[in-house]
Amino acid sequence: MAAARAAVAGILGRWASLAARSTGLAARCCGTQVRAPAAAPLWKPKALLGGNAPGGGTASVLSSVTSLLPSILHQPARTVTYNSIKHGKRKTVKAVIARFLRLHNGLWVRRQAGYKKKLWKKSASQRKRLREFVLCTRTQCKLLDKMTTSFWKRRNWYVDDPYQKYHDRTNLRL
To answer: What is the pLDDT of residues 79-93, one digit of tens each?
Structure first.
Protein backbone atom coordinates (compact mmCIF):
# COMPACT_ATOMS: atom_id res chain seq x y z
CA MET A 1 0.00 0.00 0.00
CA ALA A 2 2.87 2.34 0.82
CA ALA A 3 4.39 1.64 -2.57
CA ALA A 4 1.09 2.57 -4.22
CA ARG A 5 0.98 5.86 -2.34
CA ALA A 6 4.58 6.61 -3.29
CA ALA A 7 3.85 5.90 -6.96
CA VAL A 8 0.79 8.16 -6.95
CA ALA A 9 2.66 10.92 -5.09
CA GLY A 10 5.54 10.73 -7.56
CA ILE A 11 3.24 10.94 -10.56
CA LEU A 12 1.18 13.77 -9.09
CA GLY A 13 4.36 15.62 -8.07
CA ARG A 14 5.59 15.49 -11.67
CA TRP A 15 2.24 16.76 -12.93
CA ALA A 16 2.15 19.61 -10.42
CA SER A 17 5.66 20.84 -11.30
CA LEU A 18 4.91 20.57 -15.03
CA ALA A 19 1.66 22.49 -14.67
CA ALA A 20 3.31 25.24 -12.62
CA ARG A 21 6.07 25.60 -15.22
CA SER A 22 3.69 25.77 -18.18
CA THR A 23 1.12 28.18 -16.65
CA GLY A 24 3.69 30.34 -14.75
CA LEU A 25 2.19 33.47 -13.20
CA ALA A 26 4.96 35.67 -14.47
CA ALA A 27 7.23 35.06 -17.42
CA ARG A 28 10.20 37.31 -17.97
CA CYS A 29 10.36 38.78 -21.45
CA CYS A 30 12.84 41.52 -22.28
CA GLY A 31 13.27 42.50 -18.60
CA THR A 32 9.55 43.22 -18.03
CA GLN A 33 7.07 40.97 -16.34
CA VAL A 34 4.28 39.83 -18.63
CA ARG A 35 1.44 37.59 -17.50
CA ALA A 36 1.49 34.45 -19.60
CA PRO A 37 -1.81 33.07 -20.90
CA ALA A 38 -3.07 29.90 -19.22
CA ALA A 39 -1.71 26.90 -21.07
CA ALA A 40 -4.03 24.19 -22.36
CA PRO A 41 -3.83 20.87 -20.51
CA LEU A 42 -1.34 18.39 -21.91
CA TRP A 43 -4.03 15.73 -22.30
CA LYS A 44 -7.74 15.42 -21.82
CA PRO A 45 -8.99 12.33 -19.97
CA LYS A 46 -11.66 10.31 -21.71
CA ALA A 47 -15.12 10.87 -20.32
CA LEU A 48 -16.72 7.87 -18.65
CA LEU A 49 -19.79 6.59 -20.50
CA GLY A 50 -19.85 9.54 -22.87
CA GLY A 51 -20.40 12.28 -20.27
CA ASN A 52 -18.47 14.36 -17.80
CA ALA A 53 -17.49 13.16 -14.37
CA PRO A 54 -19.91 13.92 -11.52
CA GLY A 55 -19.60 17.46 -10.25
CA GLY A 56 -19.43 19.03 -13.69
CA GLY A 57 -15.65 18.60 -14.25
CA THR A 58 -13.62 16.03 -16.08
CA ALA A 59 -12.02 13.04 -14.38
CA SER A 60 -8.98 13.93 -12.29
CA VAL A 61 -5.48 12.65 -12.83
CA LEU A 62 -5.65 10.73 -9.56
CA SER A 63 -8.63 8.64 -10.62
CA SER A 64 -7.01 7.74 -13.93
CA VAL A 65 -3.74 6.74 -12.24
CA THR A 66 -5.25 4.69 -9.42
CA SER A 67 -6.98 2.38 -11.86
CA LEU A 68 -3.53 1.42 -13.22
CA LEU A 69 -1.92 0.76 -9.84
CA PRO A 70 -3.14 -2.81 -9.21
CA SER A 71 -1.58 -3.94 -12.47
CA ILE A 72 1.69 -2.16 -11.65
CA LEU A 73 1.94 -3.54 -8.11
CA HIS A 74 0.93 -7.12 -8.93
CA GLN A 75 3.34 -9.56 -7.28
CA PRO A 76 4.21 -12.81 -9.06
CA ALA A 77 3.14 -16.05 -7.40
CA ARG A 78 3.77 -19.71 -8.15
CA THR A 79 0.34 -21.27 -8.33
CA VAL A 80 1.13 -23.73 -11.08
CA THR A 81 -1.37 -26.50 -11.58
CA TYR A 82 -1.32 -28.71 -14.61
CA ASN A 83 -4.41 -29.93 -16.47
CA SER A 84 -4.55 -32.92 -18.77
CA ILE A 85 -5.40 -32.17 -22.37
CA LYS A 86 -7.34 -35.37 -22.92
CA HIS A 87 -9.64 -35.32 -19.88
CA GLY A 88 -9.27 -31.75 -18.54
CA LYS A 89 -8.56 -33.04 -15.03
CA ARG A 90 -5.95 -31.54 -12.74
CA LYS A 91 -2.53 -33.23 -12.76
CA THR A 92 0.21 -33.46 -10.15
CA VAL A 93 3.26 -31.21 -10.29
CA LYS A 94 6.13 -33.68 -10.04
CA ALA A 95 8.52 -31.17 -8.45
CA VAL A 96 6.26 -31.07 -5.38
CA ILE A 97 6.38 -34.85 -4.97
CA ALA A 98 10.18 -34.86 -5.29
CA ARG A 99 10.80 -32.08 -2.75
CA PHE A 100 8.06 -32.39 -0.13
CA LEU A 101 6.48 -35.06 2.03
CA ARG A 102 2.80 -34.84 2.98
CA LEU A 103 1.84 -36.08 6.41
CA HIS A 104 -1.62 -37.56 6.85
CA ASN A 105 -2.72 -34.66 9.06
CA GLY A 106 -2.36 -32.30 6.08
CA LEU A 107 1.01 -30.76 6.91
CA TRP A 108 3.82 -30.77 4.39
CA VAL A 109 7.45 -31.36 5.39
CA ARG A 110 10.52 -30.17 3.52
CA ARG A 111 14.28 -30.04 3.99
CA GLN A 112 16.14 -26.86 4.89
CA ALA A 113 17.37 -24.94 1.88
CA GLY A 114 21.02 -25.65 1.10
CA TYR A 115 21.28 -28.75 3.28
CA LYS A 116 23.65 -30.38 0.76
CA LYS A 117 25.56 -27.28 -0.38
CA LYS A 118 29.12 -26.39 0.65
CA LEU A 119 29.11 -28.47 3.82
CA TRP A 120 32.89 -28.22 4.09
CA LYS A 121 32.68 -24.54 5.04
CA LYS A 122 29.77 -24.84 7.51
CA SER A 123 30.18 -25.43 11.22
CA ALA A 124 29.00 -28.63 12.88
CA SER A 125 26.05 -26.87 14.55
CA GLN A 126 24.96 -25.35 11.24
CA ARG A 127 25.21 -28.73 9.51
CA LYS A 128 23.09 -30.28 12.28
CA ARG A 129 20.47 -27.52 11.92
CA LEU A 130 20.36 -28.01 8.15
CA ARG A 131 19.69 -31.75 8.56
CA GLU A 132 16.44 -31.00 10.40
CA PHE A 133 13.08 -30.95 8.63
CA VAL A 134 10.84 -27.89 8.39
CA LEU A 135 7.04 -27.75 8.43
CA CYS A 136 5.42 -25.64 5.73
CA THR A 137 3.08 -22.79 6.62
CA ARG A 138 -0.69 -22.97 6.22
CA THR A 139 -0.74 -21.09 2.91
CA GLN A 140 2.10 -23.22 1.55
CA CYS A 141 0.21 -26.39 2.56
CA LYS A 142 -2.92 -25.20 0.76
CA LEU A 143 -0.92 -24.41 -2.36
CA LEU A 144 0.85 -27.77 -2.31
CA ASP A 145 -2.51 -29.53 -1.89
CA LYS A 146 -3.75 -27.75 -5.02
CA MET A 147 -0.66 -28.84 -6.92
CA THR A 148 -1.20 -32.55 -6.14
CA THR A 149 -4.02 -34.98 -6.79
CA SER A 150 -5.90 -37.09 -4.25
CA PHE A 151 -3.57 -40.02 -4.97
CA TRP A 152 -0.78 -38.26 -3.04
CA LYS A 153 -3.10 -37.31 -0.16
CA ARG A 154 -4.19 -40.82 0.77
CA ARG A 155 -2.82 -42.56 3.82
CA ASN A 156 0.05 -45.01 3.31
CA TRP A 157 1.10 -47.66 5.80
CA TYR A 158 4.80 -48.45 5.57
CA VAL A 159 6.74 -50.99 7.61
CA ASP A 160 9.02 -49.18 10.10
CA ASP A 161 7.86 -45.75 8.91
CA PRO A 162 10.10 -43.11 10.55
CA TYR A 163 7.31 -40.53 10.22
CA GLN A 164 4.61 -42.70 11.83
CA LYS A 165 4.42 -40.63 15.02
CA TYR A 166 4.06 -37.39 13.01
CA HIS A 167 1.18 -38.47 10.76
CA ASP A 168 -1.44 -38.13 13.52
CA ARG A 169 -1.21 -35.00 15.62
CA THR A 170 -3.46 -33.97 18.47
CA ASN A 171 -4.26 -30.39 19.47
CA LEU A 172 -3.00 -29.13 16.12
CA ARG A 173 -4.97 -26.36 14.46
CA LEU A 174 -4.60 -25.98 10.71
So the answer is: 677 888 888 888 999
